[in-house]
Amino acid sequence: MTPSWLRVSGDDIVLTLHIQPGAKRTEVAGAHGEALKVRLNAPPVDGKANDCLIAYLADLLSLPKARVVLESGLSSRSKRVRAVGIAADRVVAKLARDG
Q: Which of 6, 18, 49, 99 would disulfide-bridge 28, Cβ 3.0–4.6 Å?
């Protein structure tokens, strides 16, 4: 079963995320309603939290940063992120292992 925070879009997946910037460490914290909560060890200023999120997800999913795209939520805690060219089961396995 696909979690509510993950949507398949062609060869890509789209993650619905709830972000907590300024945390002690960067990690997946589990489900938060219909979203996946991610804690970031970066302040929410000058795009640092967004940069940290993209770098963290790219590393976690073993993708180049260019294939992890922030689709919406530039200045919000609620974000949608597209991971290009990765299977949903692989994403779920990697996020579940970290979270």
A: 99
Angle among Cα 76, 79, 86 to the nearest 5 degrees reads: 160
Separation of alpha carbons 61 and 89, rounded Å: 11
% residues pLDDT > 90 (the chain): 89
Q: Where are the domains of the chain?
A: 6-98
Element (H, E) at 81: strand 78-83
Across all residues in the chain, what is the average pLDDT?
93
Class of CATH domain 6-98:
alpha beta
